[in-house]
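Sharing a chain and its predicted structure for anyone who wants a worked example. Both blocks are below, sequence first, C-alpha coordinates second.
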Amino acid sequence: MSTKRDRYAGQGSIHGVVVVDKPTGPTSHDLVAAARRHFGTRRVGHAGTLDPMATGVLVLLLGEATKLSSHLTRDVKTYEAVVAFGSSTTTLDAQGTVTRRRALTAGWLSEETLAKALQAELERELQIPPAVSAIKVGGTAAHARVRRGEDVELAPRDVRLHELRLLRWDDQQLTVELTVSKGYYVRAFARDLGDALGVPAHLATLRRTRSGPFTLAQAVPFPLEGTVHPLSLLDVARQAFPLAHLTRDGVERARSGKRLREHDDYQPAATALPTGQPPEATSPPTNVDELGSTSLGNVTPGAPSLVACAFENRLIALAEEAAPGTLKIVRGIHDPTGPDLHAPGAVG
Protein backbone atom coordinates (compact mmCIF):
# COMPACT_ATOMS: atom_id res chain seq x y z
CA MET A 1 0.00 0.00 0.00
CA SER A 2 1.42 3.39 -0.98
CA THR A 3 2.01 5.96 1.71
CA LYS A 4 1.72 9.73 1.59
CA ARG A 5 5.53 9.83 1.52
CA ASP A 6 5.51 7.57 -1.56
CA ARG A 7 2.91 9.69 -3.32
CA TYR A 8 5.00 12.82 -2.86
CA ALA A 9 8.38 11.18 -3.39
CA GLY A 10 8.93 13.09 -6.64
CA GLN A 11 7.96 16.48 -5.27
CA GLY A 12 10.15 19.36 -6.26
CA SER A 13 10.67 18.11 -9.82
CA ILE A 14 7.68 20.00 -11.25
CA HIS A 15 7.90 23.79 -11.52
CA GLY A 16 5.69 26.15 -13.49
CA VAL A 17 2.08 27.13 -14.09
CA VAL A 18 -0.94 25.17 -15.25
CA VAL A 19 -3.96 27.21 -16.34
CA VAL A 20 -7.12 25.21 -15.61
CA ASP A 21 -10.67 25.79 -16.85
CA LYS A 22 -12.48 25.28 -13.56
CA PRO A 23 -15.98 23.76 -13.80
CA THR A 24 -18.95 24.61 -11.58
CA GLY A 25 -18.94 22.75 -8.28
CA PRO A 26 -15.46 22.17 -6.89
CA THR A 27 -13.72 24.77 -4.77
CA SER A 28 -10.37 26.28 -5.70
CA HIS A 29 -8.85 24.21 -2.88
CA ASP A 30 -10.32 21.06 -4.47
CA LEU A 31 -8.40 21.84 -7.67
CA VAL A 32 -5.19 22.46 -5.71
CA ALA A 33 -5.61 19.10 -3.94
CA ALA A 34 -6.22 17.36 -7.26
CA ALA A 35 -3.10 18.96 -8.76
CA ARG A 36 -1.03 17.78 -5.79
CA ARG A 37 -2.14 14.23 -6.48
CA HIS A 38 -1.70 14.51 -10.25
CA PHE A 39 1.81 15.97 -10.16
CA GLY A 40 2.97 14.23 -6.97
CA THR A 41 4.00 17.38 -5.10
CA ARG A 42 2.76 19.30 -2.09
CA ARG A 43 4.01 22.59 -3.52
CA VAL A 44 0.86 23.71 -5.30
CA GLY A 45 -0.98 27.00 -4.90
CA HIS A 46 -3.12 29.29 -7.02
CA ALA A 47 -3.23 32.91 -8.13
CA GLY A 48 -6.75 33.89 -7.11
CA THR A 49 -9.76 32.02 -5.71
CA LEU A 50 -12.91 31.23 -7.67
CA ASP A 51 -16.20 30.55 -5.86
CA PRO A 52 -17.63 27.02 -6.29
CA MET A 53 -20.35 28.33 -8.64
CA ALA A 54 -17.85 30.15 -10.88
CA THR A 55 -16.06 28.66 -13.87
CA GLY A 56 -13.05 29.60 -15.94
CA VAL A 57 -9.40 30.51 -15.50
CA LEU A 58 -7.75 29.24 -12.33
CA VAL A 59 -3.96 29.64 -12.37
CA LEU A 60 -2.26 26.76 -10.53
CA LEU A 61 1.30 27.36 -9.34
CA LEU A 62 3.68 24.40 -9.02
CA GLY A 63 6.99 24.18 -7.17
CA GLU A 64 9.07 27.36 -7.42
CA ALA A 65 6.18 29.09 -9.20
CA THR A 66 4.45 29.29 -5.79
CA LYS A 67 6.95 32.06 -5.02
CA LEU A 68 5.16 34.15 -7.65
CA SER A 69 1.79 33.88 -5.90
CA SER A 70 1.75 37.27 -4.15
CA HIS A 71 2.75 38.97 -7.42
CA LEU A 72 0.32 37.17 -9.74
CA THR A 73 -2.69 37.42 -7.41
CA ARG A 74 -2.59 41.22 -7.58
CA ASP A 75 -3.07 41.17 -11.37
CA VAL A 76 -6.34 42.41 -12.83
CA LYS A 77 -8.91 39.76 -13.76
CA THR A 78 -11.64 39.67 -16.40
CA TYR A 79 -15.04 38.01 -15.98
CA GLU A 80 -18.23 37.46 -17.94
CA ALA A 81 -21.15 37.68 -15.57
CA VAL A 82 -24.93 37.31 -15.78
CA VAL A 83 -26.92 39.35 -13.23
CA ALA A 84 -30.51 38.22 -12.67
CA PHE A 85 -33.14 40.75 -11.57
CA GLY A 86 -36.14 40.08 -9.35
CA SER A 87 -34.63 38.08 -6.48
CA SER A 88 -31.80 38.39 -3.98
CA THR A 89 -30.09 35.59 -2.04
CA THR A 90 -28.11 34.99 1.13
CA THR A 91 -24.89 34.43 -0.80
CA LEU A 92 -25.57 37.06 -3.51
CA ASP A 93 -25.41 34.31 -6.14
CA ALA A 94 -27.60 31.52 -7.51
CA GLN A 95 -26.47 29.03 -4.85
CA GLY A 96 -27.94 30.97 -1.94
CA THR A 97 -31.39 30.93 -0.35
CA VAL A 98 -33.75 33.51 -1.77
CA THR A 99 -34.31 36.34 0.71
CA ARG A 100 -36.47 38.67 -1.37
CA ARG A 101 -38.54 38.53 -4.55
CA ARG A 102 -40.17 41.18 -6.67
CA ALA A 103 -42.31 40.78 -9.78
CA LEU A 104 -40.95 42.80 -12.67
CA THR A 105 -43.28 44.42 -15.17
CA ALA A 106 -42.42 44.55 -18.87
CA GLY A 107 -40.38 47.59 -19.77
CA TRP A 108 -39.48 48.46 -16.15
CA LEU A 109 -35.81 48.97 -17.03
CA SER A 110 -35.06 51.97 -19.24
CA GLU A 111 -31.85 52.63 -21.13
CA GLU A 112 -31.23 55.85 -19.22
CA THR A 113 -31.67 54.19 -15.83
CA LEU A 114 -29.39 51.28 -16.73
CA ALA A 115 -26.67 53.53 -18.14
CA LYS A 116 -26.71 55.67 -14.98
CA ALA A 117 -26.50 52.62 -12.68
CA LEU A 118 -23.61 51.08 -14.63
CA GLN A 119 -21.72 54.36 -14.65
CA ALA A 120 -22.10 54.56 -10.86
CA GLU A 121 -20.62 51.07 -10.51
CA LEU A 122 -17.74 52.00 -12.76
CA GLU A 123 -16.96 55.00 -10.56
CA ARG A 124 -17.14 52.97 -7.33
CA GLU A 125 -13.96 53.04 -5.24
CA LEU A 126 -15.26 51.30 -2.10
CA GLN A 127 -17.11 47.98 -2.07
CA ILE A 128 -18.61 46.07 0.85
CA PRO A 129 -17.64 42.39 0.37
CA PRO A 130 -20.28 39.67 0.66
CA ALA A 131 -20.76 38.40 4.20
CA VAL A 132 -20.50 34.87 2.79
CA SER A 133 -16.83 35.12 1.88
CA ALA A 134 -13.43 33.85 3.02
CA ILE A 135 -12.49 37.17 4.61
CA LYS A 136 -11.34 36.58 8.18
CA VAL A 137 -13.20 38.20 11.08
CA GLY A 138 -11.41 37.67 14.37
CA GLY A 139 -9.46 34.81 12.82
CA THR A 140 -12.57 33.02 11.49
CA ALA A 141 -13.83 33.09 7.90
CA ALA A 142 -16.87 35.32 7.55
CA HIS A 143 -18.85 32.56 5.79
CA ALA A 144 -18.35 30.25 8.79
CA ARG A 145 -19.73 32.90 11.13
CA VAL A 146 -22.74 33.49 8.86
CA ARG A 147 -23.52 29.77 8.77
CA ARG A 148 -23.42 29.73 12.58
CA GLY A 149 -26.17 32.32 12.54
CA GLU A 150 -24.00 35.32 13.39
CA ASP A 151 -24.57 38.75 11.90
CA VAL A 152 -21.44 39.73 9.99
CA GLU A 153 -20.69 43.23 8.80
CA LEU A 154 -17.56 43.67 6.72
CA ALA A 155 -15.78 46.97 6.22
CA PRO A 156 -15.71 48.50 2.73
CA ARG A 157 -12.59 47.80 0.71
CA ASP A 158 -10.73 49.79 -1.92
CA VAL A 159 -11.47 48.29 -5.35
CA ARG A 160 -11.43 49.34 -8.98
CA LEU A 161 -13.63 48.37 -11.90
CA HIS A 162 -11.17 49.04 -14.71
CA GLU A 163 -13.42 48.18 -17.63
CA LEU A 164 -17.10 47.37 -18.08
CA ARG A 165 -18.82 46.17 -21.26
CA LEU A 166 -22.53 45.52 -21.52
CA LEU A 167 -22.98 42.50 -23.80
CA ARG A 168 -26.75 41.80 -23.55
CA TRP A 169 -29.69 42.95 -21.47
CA ASP A 170 -33.46 42.72 -21.06
CA ASP A 171 -36.03 43.11 -18.27
CA GLN A 172 -34.94 39.89 -16.55
CA GLN A 173 -31.15 39.95 -16.67
CA LEU A 174 -28.03 41.44 -18.18
CA THR A 175 -24.67 40.04 -19.26
CA VAL A 176 -21.53 42.09 -18.71
CA GLU A 177 -17.79 41.73 -19.09
CA LEU A 178 -15.79 43.25 -16.23
CA THR A 179 -12.07 43.77 -15.74
CA VAL A 180 -11.44 44.34 -12.06
CA SER A 181 -8.76 44.81 -9.42
CA LYS A 182 -7.70 42.34 -6.77
CA GLY A 183 -10.31 42.06 -4.03
CA TYR A 184 -13.28 42.95 -6.25
CA TYR A 185 -16.38 40.77 -5.72
CA VAL A 186 -18.62 40.38 -8.76
CA ARG A 187 -21.34 39.08 -6.40
CA ALA A 188 -21.25 42.46 -4.69
CA PHE A 189 -21.48 44.14 -8.10
CA ALA A 190 -24.76 42.26 -8.71
CA ARG A 191 -26.10 43.29 -5.30
CA ASP A 192 -25.14 46.94 -5.72
CA LEU A 193 -26.41 47.16 -9.28
CA GLY A 194 -29.77 45.84 -8.11
CA ASP A 195 -29.84 48.39 -5.29
CA ALA A 196 -29.10 51.19 -7.76
CA LEU A 197 -31.96 50.00 -9.99
CA GLY A 198 -34.33 49.57 -7.04
CA VAL A 199 -34.83 45.81 -7.46
CA PRO A 200 -33.42 42.69 -5.81
CA ALA A 201 -30.69 41.04 -7.87
CA HIS A 202 -28.13 38.28 -7.67
CA LEU A 203 -25.25 36.84 -9.67
CA ALA A 204 -26.65 34.06 -11.87
CA THR A 205 -23.43 32.88 -13.56
CA LEU A 206 -19.76 33.88 -13.49
CA ARG A 207 -16.93 32.88 -15.79
CA ARG A 208 -13.35 34.16 -15.44
CA THR A 209 -11.87 34.63 -18.89
CA ARG A 210 -8.50 36.12 -17.91
CA SER A 211 -6.28 36.27 -14.84
CA GLY A 212 -3.43 38.70 -15.46
CA PRO A 213 -1.72 37.45 -18.64
CA PHE A 214 -3.33 33.99 -18.55
CA THR A 215 -6.43 33.28 -20.64
CA LEU A 216 -8.94 30.54 -21.38
CA ALA A 217 -7.06 29.82 -24.61
CA GLN A 218 -4.25 28.38 -22.45
CA ALA A 219 -6.51 26.45 -20.09
CA VAL A 220 -6.71 22.67 -19.78
CA PRO A 221 -9.94 20.97 -18.68
CA PHE A 222 -10.55 19.66 -15.17
CA PRO A 223 -10.24 16.92 -13.94
CA LEU A 224 -6.59 16.75 -14.97
CA GLU A 225 -5.92 13.67 -17.07
CA GLY A 226 -2.91 12.19 -18.80
CA THR A 227 0.27 14.18 -19.31
CA VAL A 228 -0.11 17.88 -18.52
CA HIS A 229 2.84 20.11 -19.38
CA PRO A 230 3.12 23.19 -17.14
CA LEU A 231 4.34 26.48 -18.55
CA SER A 232 8.00 26.80 -17.57
CA LEU A 233 9.14 29.36 -15.01
CA LEU A 234 10.66 31.50 -17.73
CA ASP A 235 7.58 31.24 -19.95
CA VAL A 236 5.49 32.42 -17.01
CA ALA A 237 7.89 35.30 -16.39
CA ARG A 238 7.80 36.31 -20.06
CA GLN A 239 4.02 36.55 -19.93
CA ALA A 240 3.75 38.28 -16.57
CA PHE A 241 6.74 40.64 -16.30
CA PRO A 242 9.18 42.70 -18.35
CA LEU A 243 12.49 40.86 -18.75
CA ALA A 244 16.07 41.76 -17.89
CA HIS A 245 18.88 39.57 -19.24
CA LEU A 246 21.61 39.04 -16.67
CA THR A 247 25.33 38.82 -17.28
CA ARG A 248 27.34 36.14 -15.49
CA ASP A 249 28.38 38.74 -12.93
CA GLY A 250 24.73 39.69 -12.62
CA VAL A 251 23.79 36.11 -11.74
CA GLU A 252 26.33 36.09 -8.90
CA ARG A 253 25.09 39.44 -7.60
CA ALA A 254 21.46 38.29 -7.84
CA ARG A 255 22.13 35.09 -5.89
CA SER A 256 23.74 37.22 -3.16
CA GLY A 257 20.83 39.65 -3.08
CA LYS A 258 22.95 42.56 -4.28
CA ARG A 259 21.64 45.39 -6.42
CA LEU A 260 22.05 45.03 -10.16
CA ARG A 261 23.56 47.73 -12.37
CA GLU A 262 22.41 48.20 -15.93
CA HIS A 263 24.99 47.19 -18.56
CA ASP A 264 27.37 45.71 -15.96
CA ASP A 265 24.89 43.20 -14.53
CA TYR A 266 21.89 43.20 -16.87
CA GLN A 267 20.44 44.41 -20.13
CA PRO A 268 16.73 45.29 -20.22
CA ALA A 269 14.77 43.41 -22.86
CA ALA A 270 12.59 45.36 -25.28
CA THR A 271 9.25 43.97 -24.13
CA ALA A 272 5.75 45.38 -23.82
CA LEU A 273 3.98 45.92 -20.52
CA PRO A 274 2.54 42.73 -19.05
CA THR A 275 -0.93 41.88 -20.29
CA GLY A 276 -2.07 41.87 -16.67
CA GLN A 277 -2.04 45.67 -16.70
CA PRO A 278 -5.40 47.51 -16.73
CA PRO A 279 -6.69 48.48 -20.18
CA GLU A 280 -6.49 51.99 -21.54
CA ALA A 281 -9.29 54.33 -20.55
CA THR A 282 -12.01 55.24 -23.04
CA SER A 283 -14.64 57.95 -23.04
CA PRO A 284 -17.81 56.94 -21.14
CA PRO A 285 -20.78 56.08 -23.39
CA THR A 286 -23.90 58.20 -23.07
CA ASN A 287 -26.59 55.56 -23.68
CA VAL A 288 -27.20 51.84 -23.58
CA ASP A 289 -26.71 51.34 -27.31
CA GLU A 290 -23.15 52.64 -26.93
CA LEU A 291 -22.70 50.53 -23.81
CA GLY A 292 -23.39 47.46 -25.88
CA SER A 293 -20.51 48.06 -28.25
CA THR A 294 -17.85 49.98 -26.36
CA SER A 295 -16.08 49.92 -23.02
CA LEU A 296 -16.28 52.09 -19.98
CA GLY A 297 -12.71 52.71 -18.86
CA ASN A 298 -11.50 53.52 -15.37
CA VAL A 299 -7.75 53.13 -15.04
CA THR A 300 -5.87 53.87 -11.85
CA PRO A 301 -2.10 53.73 -11.37
CA GLY A 302 -0.93 50.32 -10.20
CA ALA A 303 2.06 49.16 -8.24
CA PRO A 304 5.42 49.47 -10.01
CA SER A 305 6.02 46.54 -12.33
CA LEU A 306 8.43 43.87 -11.24
CA VAL A 307 11.17 42.76 -13.59
CA ALA A 308 12.00 39.11 -14.25
CA CYS A 309 15.76 38.50 -14.32
CA ALA A 310 16.85 35.70 -16.65
CA PHE A 311 20.09 34.02 -17.68
CA GLU A 312 20.48 31.49 -20.47
CA ASN A 313 16.72 30.91 -20.71
CA ARG A 314 16.36 30.36 -16.96
CA LEU A 315 14.48 32.48 -14.46
CA ILE A 316 16.88 33.69 -11.77
CA ALA A 317 14.99 36.26 -9.70
CA LEU A 318 12.34 38.96 -9.53
CA ALA A 319 13.50 42.53 -9.04
CA GLU A 320 12.13 46.06 -8.90
CA GLU A 321 13.68 49.34 -9.92
CA ALA A 322 15.47 50.92 -6.96
CA ALA A 323 16.77 53.86 -9.02
CA PRO A 324 17.22 54.57 -12.73
CA GLY A 325 19.50 51.84 -14.06
CA THR A 326 19.47 49.89 -10.77
CA LEU A 327 17.43 46.81 -9.84
CA LYS A 328 16.82 45.52 -6.32
CA ILE A 329 16.25 41.77 -5.92
CA VAL A 330 12.94 41.03 -4.20
CA ARG A 331 12.68 37.28 -4.73
CA GLY A 332 15.18 34.63 -5.74
CA ILE A 333 13.93 31.72 -7.84
CA HIS A 334 15.59 28.32 -7.84
CA ASP A 335 15.17 27.11 -11.39
CA PRO A 336 16.33 23.48 -11.11
CA THR A 337 17.95 23.67 -14.56
CA GLY A 338 19.70 26.96 -13.76
CA PRO A 339 22.17 28.44 -11.27
CA ASP A 340 21.58 27.44 -7.66
CA LEU A 341 20.10 30.39 -5.77
CA HIS A 342 20.01 28.44 -2.54
CA ALA A 343 23.73 28.46 -2.02
CA PRO A 344 24.93 30.32 1.11
CA GLY A 345 23.85 33.92 0.97
CA ALA A 346 21.26 33.25 -1.73
CA VAL A 347 17.90 35.01 -1.91
CA GLY A 348 14.91 32.70 -2.05
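Comments welcome. The chain is about 20% helix and 30% strand.
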